Amino acid sequence: MRKKLYIPIKTRQIVVSYCNTDIVPETNYRVGQQNGHTNEIDWFKDYFDFIEDNGLKTHLAEAYYQSRFLYKIMQGLHLTSFKKTSIIKFQIQQYASIYEALIDYTLEKFHKDEVKEQLKETEFRVINVLSQNSNLTITVDCKEETVYTCKKTTRNVPLKKTRIDKRTELAKNYGIISETIKNEFDGLYDLRNNIHILRAASANYRPKIQEASKAFQLMEPIQSSVKLYVQIKKNIV
Q: How many CB atoms lie within 10 A of CB 178?
């Protein structure tokens, strides 16, 4: 069995140090400079401090940090377009996942019952109201078709199983995000779906670095909008 080869520890330390330098998207930020931080991840946790669910807050912070870290690796290695494609894909998927979580969290926290009502769908369930061995038929285009008796009812559709554009429409209507943010996020989510191999192959889609950059740039508008909404609902502002 071939012996595993590792990058020398000093080289690894240089790479990690490079990635953590300016990983925080804030000008002149430094760990421990009047912020009480002991690690860069602390900034990312503070960035989502308006999220009351501690588990979700931690996952959001780590997801954002990971996106930035991989971006710095791609930047530092100066990868060719082919080699950086996997990182670009990850960036698009990761940022879309972060924004989806922020929107779903806010909808469920402040509008759970209202959203549940709005997402109800009508369906018809077949029921038997005829005597045994009886049936109804109708002739269509000279062909006899069976007619089934049904009962009209409704079913609850979970928020997470609802199309993203419908969820962002709800978020827009409640004032959580603006029309512009909705449109930009819907577009990002389409890119996220296009990344799946079968779909990408059929459309000959290859993610671009500009698309990953736009995904990152959407962070501040969405975070600010959701944070302000949460603060208003909690009567902090």
A: 14
